[in-house]
Amino acid sequence: MRRHSEAFREAAERKRKQDEAPRLRDAVPTLLQLDLQVIEERANVPGHEVRHKRVIIIERAPALFEFACSDRECNDGGHDLSGLVLKELGAGSALFHGVHRCGGHTRDGECAYELRFEAHATYRDGPRAPVNNPD
Length: 135
What we know:
four-stranded antiparallel beta sheet; 34% strand
């Protein structure tokens, strides 16, 4: 029961942050559409993955891209892609991807979940030239 109340509290905190965040339409005014393909999996454990597609409703979406960790044993973890996604959208990138390792902990140590994503964006003025990322 304790984990259930923690999950409820974490969900309420995510909702509060989303409500307080700037809107995506204001952060990237030329953005028309954004789709995220997300795969979350335990590192080095094939076949143990969670996949989903998130279609972002630009007019009401927060400029916040946080995902809870899918591992039920994970405490205080998750994936905050906000900086990376907003940087790429600000650069006008039409297609970009990345990987984020969960920062939480389980009974056995560090959480081993990774989130891989691919984003497809369209803009009112079309995509800009690719930006050289030193990453």
